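Encode chain A's predicted structure.
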Amino acid sequence: MLKDYINVAAKRVQADVVLKNATFVNVFTGEKERGDIAVCGDRIAGIGSYSGRTEYDVSGKVVLPGYIDSHVHIESSQLSPEEFASLVMPRGTAAVVADPHEIVNVCGLAGLEYMCAASRSAPLDVYMQLPSCVPATPFETSGAILSSKDIAAAISRSEVLGLGEFMNFPGVIGGDEEVLKKLQAAHDAGKIVDGHAPGVAGDGLNAYLCGGISTDHECATPEEMRQKAARGMYVMLRHSSSIHDLAANCGAVTPGNASRFLLCTDDRHAADLKNKGHIDDALRTVVAAGLDPVTAVTIATLNAARCYNLKWRGAIAPYYHADMVVVDDLSGFNARLVFKDGVLAAKDGRALFDTQNRYLPSSVLGTVKLARPLAAEDFVLALKGERARAITINYGSIVTGCEEVAVRSVNGDVVCENDICKLAVVERHKLTGNIGRGLIKGYGFKGGALGITVAHDSHNMIILGDDNDAMAKVAQTLASVGGGMALAESSSGNVESVAFDIAGLMSSRNADYVIRESSKLYEKAYSMGTDRRIAPFMTLAFLSLAVIPHIKLLDTGLFDVDKFCFTDINA
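Encoded structure for chain A:
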């Protein structure tokens, strides 16, 4: 193809496609330029004055490089990889760096293989990271374990870009031998290592970085971002469904450090992708918050390509892949045309490729396994006294607090009152029968139970409620449908659910179905008192994430993330 590219560039041969009268963002110079953009096959051949067999007049629009999401868990969309692509590509996304941490925690390397195979059905570039922490901590039960030997054997695979977010930051800082072997395996293979180090600073940050870790997406404040960028990290500005601090945190970007920032979505579910957008919505948000639009576009494109060594991507220039998005302007980022490798992949918000023939191997189906049928008595919570530790919610954040609360018990079981509910994590992988029991304050929900089999990071079943019988009904329903979301109402006895048949994490149905049926459950949860600052099920899904401060619940008990050990529910 080199000769073809050169011949088109030199105008000896007509281009395949030309974007005529283009105004485009030059991410190398930080300027906007004008000229025709000529495409030969999958590459940009030239910029200037060209004619093509197919021409698009883009006068009055702005052409940008295709966006790159620098860190995403596709599973969190609750959609198959094929359906995920059909939502994000019409928004201008050309590539994602995906960490299949969620499905690998359930299905092991078979989950990675599924994600790779399913992703090939759509034109979206999906660069896979090998999950580094399966499980995220040694204190919980996951569906699989990836040891340092497993990492060393898999990290050199051609479909693996690098090592996924290294959440066990205490293990890195403490020099744990098994942790260091995983890191060394990635370095020996010449692969990048993603980070995950919330609140780590000073000497601890120095130690973490000496593990050879390149990125972080868990910064809570602009100051934390600036410190990590100053120590050489690529820092990700996150725009997820559960965390809403992008507008504030983009204030960390300065002309001097802008090259160290990336954009990512991390965890973004189907309704937000469909109704609000993907990286395009992140761009709207940061520009509205005052970030220079050209700088924002550079962060969303070239910076990510350079961080992950994605050769010839992330810019509009000769020999670069012809991944381009034509937008109305640099404030709304409304995508009119999206080109992937020179082919028109989406127009006016509609994907021009088919995703209906989905890959569904048996290895990712039927993954919810309970040791025995559960009943109301399995959710009895007996305390030693009248005070207990309860998880509290920080609205708009996945960081949780801990509060000592007064509790009343009747017949050896906690009474749920004063905005206190029970929380249970039911193990669903190894038939252990484990049930972690705790309390939560601030959810607002009452009159039944709700639950989900998406529970970061080991993805056991997590259930919240104020009625033991309703909690048992939710558990049994989730098991019977193969995982998903369920809600039981005490007054009627009704149980409603949405099935996530792929590993208990994703639906094989189309996005419109998942969004519509999920919305019904969300509204039911809100009608039962759930605080509207909470995403009823997705907030629940983060209450077992034992690498995010401060208190979480695992299938094995209540866990103090700050001390990295279990804690007693009795205060």
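The longest helix spans residues 511-527.
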